[in-house]
C-alpha cells in the first residue's frame, strides 16, 4: 500500500508550468529568488514577466510607462529588470564616472536620445553616441556650429536640433545629418533663454530676456530646399522669460522671473497667442521658474529660485504638490520619468537630489564630482537627462554619468577637448 501511495504522489517539479506560475504569484520577492535557485526550470518560470509586471509598473524611474521616457532608453527592459533597476534607484545603488572634462567653464545643456547624448558647450553642440552600458563614446558623431556666442538652451525633437543663444539667434540643424537648416539672427532683443518644439516639429517657441515669447511656424522653402521659420505670434510676457514648455493640447506654459508683480507662471493658447491662465501669484517676489516639464495635458512640474519644485494642475489653477530643497538652494533644473521619479539639480556643490513623487521627502542626495578636486571647486548643476538606467549631470567643466545598471564605469577614461 505504501509503495502504491508513493507511486501516486506528485512532486512540485512535475506540475505544469501554468500551475507553477499560479503558485509562484503568492511568493514574495525573497522567496521567489530562492525558488529560482532550485533548478533551471524554476528559474525560467520565476523570471517570467507575468510574475513581475505589477511591481514593474510601480518601479521608480525604470517603469518605462511614459512614451517619451521610453524613447530615451537604450532598450526595453523585462519586468524583472525594471524591478531590479527601480530598487537601485530607490537605494542609490549607482556608479559615478566623469565622461567628459573641459578646461574652460561653461553653462552646458543636455538632451538625451536612445542612441545619442547631445551636449552644448559654449557656442557648439556636440553629439556623443551612447555605448551599450550607458556610457558615451570617446568620439563625437556631430559637431554643430552656428552661434556666435554661447547656446543658452536647445532641444532635440522630431529630427531637428533647435537652439537659442546669447547672440540673440535661433538656429536649427538636422539631427541625423548635421545639416544646417536655418538661422534667425537678432530675432529677439536679448539672450534667447528658452526654446521648445511642438506640433511634430511644425512649431517652435522661443523666449527671451527681452520679455517676449515668439511662436514660429516652420515652412518648407522649395526654391532653396530648406526650412523657413515664420513668426506667427509675438507675446509680451511683461517679465524676463526663463523657461517655456508646450503640451500636446496646444497650451504653452511660460516661466518668468516672477518680479514686479508678474506671475511666475503664465499660460497661453498657442493657436491665438492669448493669455488663458496665470498661476503662482501667491508666491513671493522673485520666485522665477527656471525649468519645467509637462507630465500630462493638465499637469506639469516647475522649479526655480524659491527652492521649491512644484506639481501644477491647470484644472485647480494652482500647485497640488511641492518638494522643498532642504539646504535653501535654488533649483536650477529637473529631470523626470513623468510617472513617479523626480531628480532636481541645485545651484551649489553639484548637488543632485532623488525624489519619489509619491511621498513628500527626498530619498537621498548625490554630489556630482567636479572636474578638479580641491577647496572651492564646486559647480551648479546646469542640466540633467535620464532614462530607465542612467542619469547624466552637466556641471561647469564636466559631464557626469550615474549608472544604475550595476556596472562600474569608473574605469572609463576622461575625455578632454
Overview of this structure, please?
There is one protein chain. This protein is mainly β and 417 residues long. Helix content is 13%, strand content 41%. It is built from seven helices and 28 strands. A four-stranded antiparallel beta sheet has the order 1-28-27-26, with no helix packed on it. It has a four-stranded antiparallel beta sheet with strand order 2-3-4-5, with no helix packed on it. β18 (289-294) and β19 (299-304) form a beta hairpin. The chain is globular, with a radius of gyration of 24 Å. The termini are far apart. 46% of the residues are buried. Residues 409-417 have low confidence and may be disordered.
Set down the secondary structure blueprint.
Elements: H1 2-8, H2 17-24, H3 29-36, H4 40-46, H5 53-57, H6 67-72, H7 79-91, E1 95-101, E2 109-112, E3 116-121, E4 124-129, E5 142-144, E6 151-157, E7 160-165, E8 170-174, E9 180-184, E10 192-198, E11 203-208, E12 212-221, E13 226-236, E14 241-246, E15 251-256, E16 265-269, E17 275-279, E18 289-294, E19 299-304, E20 308-313, E21 318-324, E22 331-336, E23 341-346, E24 351-356, E25 362-367, E26 383-386, E27 390-394, E28 398-403
Antiparallel strand pairs: 1-28, 2-3, 3-4, 4-5, 6-7, 7-8, 8-9, 10-11, 11-12, 12-13, 14-15, 15-16, 16-17, 18-19, 19-20, 20-21, 22-23, 23-24, 24-25, 26-27, 27-28
Which descriptors apply to this entry?
globular, 7 helices, mainly beta, 417 residues, four-stranded antiparallel beta sheet
β-sheet strand percentage: 35-45%
Alpha carbon gyration radius: 24 Å
Backbone shape = globular
Contiguous helical run count:
7
- Overall pLDDT metric: 90
Helix coverage percent of residues?
10-25%
